[in-house]
UniProtKB/TrEMBL annotation:
InterPro entries: CcO_II, CcO_II-like_C, CcO_II_C, Copper_CuA, Cupredoxin, Cyt_c_oxidase_su2, Cyt_c_oxidase_su2_TM_dom, Cyt_c_oxidase_su2_TM_sf. Component of the cytochrome c oxidase, the last enzyme in the mitochondrial electron transport chain which drives oxidative phosphorylation. The respiratory chain contains 3 multisubunit complexes succinate dehydrogenase (complex II, CII), ubiquinol-cytochrome c oxidoreductase (cytochrome b-c1 complex, complex III, CIII) and cytochrome c oxidase (complex IV, CIV), that cooperate to transfer electrons derived from NADH and succinate to molecular oxygen, creating an electrochemical gradient over the inner membrane that drives transmembrane transport and the ATP synthase. It comes from Parapocryptes serperaster. Belongs to the cytochrome c oxidase subunit 2 family. Binds a copper A center. PANTHER family: CYTOCHROME C OXIDASE SUBUNIT 2 (PTHR22888:SF9), CYTOCHROME C OXIDASE, SUBUNIT II (PTHR22888). The keyword Nucleus does not apply. NCBIfam families: CoxB. This is Cytochrome c oxidase subunit 2.
Length: 230
């Protein structure tokens, strides 16, 4: 959950998000080192009156400043490609949920259960219970088991939407007439908030996403209750 004045990312709640945080720190350190070197060179050039004749026309220095950036780009590209492939992996999901974007709410269908499907609307400010977050709470949460691969099929009924939950490292566009898929593993129990990340009309800001991760036995109780109410 994000908080005011937060500078970094939300705490990771999935293995992929942990990898993304590590890659962010890795790339940030490279940018910091490059910025420090460039700043030092600028200060040295401005402040010193000495001139090195070998730097003004040197084959060796040209080779260095050509090869060194290429090496740095490789050090950034290889971990990035690894994470891209990890994010696309959907292997043997234990649960499949279909998320459908509407103007302006989400609906969820648990395709492993024929009768579990519901709409998820934002709770109006005047109806919020104590401890709930304004513009983020919904009347029906998407409930998933922890430590189990969950596949999410994302589509839309009307216009473009985007199903995004930052703590889980998930963001997938919802396109009418197209079925996109993504996957995640909730590594710990909790309630994780997201929002539609594609401008979709007047109430784009009012269709939040809430994923509640619970232990498997609690998920079984919840699914049994939903089947009874169906």
């Amino acid at each position: 959950m994000a908080h005011p004045s937060q500078l970094g990312f939300q705490d990771a709640a999935s293995p992929v998000m942990e990898e993304l945080l590590h890659f962010h720190d890795h790339a940030l350190m490279i940018v910091f080192l490059i910025s420090t070197l460039v700043l030092y060179i600028i200060v040295a050039m401005v402040s010193t009156k000495l001139t090195n004749m070998y730097i003004l026309d040197s084959q060796e220095i040209e080779i260095i400043w050509t090869i060194l950036p290429a090496i740095i780009l490789i050090l950034i590209a290889l971990p990035s490609l690894r994470i891209l492939y990890l994010m696309d992996e959907v292997t043997n999901p234990h649960l499949t949920v279909k998320a459908i974007g509407h103007q302006w709410y989400w609906s969820y269908e648990y395709t492993d259960y024929q009768e579990i499907a519901f709409d998820s609307y934002m709770v109006p400010t005047q109806d919020l219970a104590p401890g709930h977050f304004r513009l983020l709470e919904v009347d029906h949460r998407m409930v998933v088991p922890t430590e189990a691969p969950v596949r999410v099929l994302v589509t839309a009924e009307d216009v473009l939407h985007s199903w995004a939950v930052p703590a889980l490292g998930v963001k997938m566009d919802a396109v009418p007439g197209r079925l996109n898929q993504t996957a995640f593993i909730a590594s710990r129990p909790g309630v994780f908030y997201g929002q539609c990340s594609e401008i979709c009309g007047a109430n784009h800001s009012f269709m939040p996403i809430v994923v509640e991760a619970v232990p498997l036995n609690f998920f079984q109780d919840w699914s049994a209750l939903m089947l009874e109410d169906a």
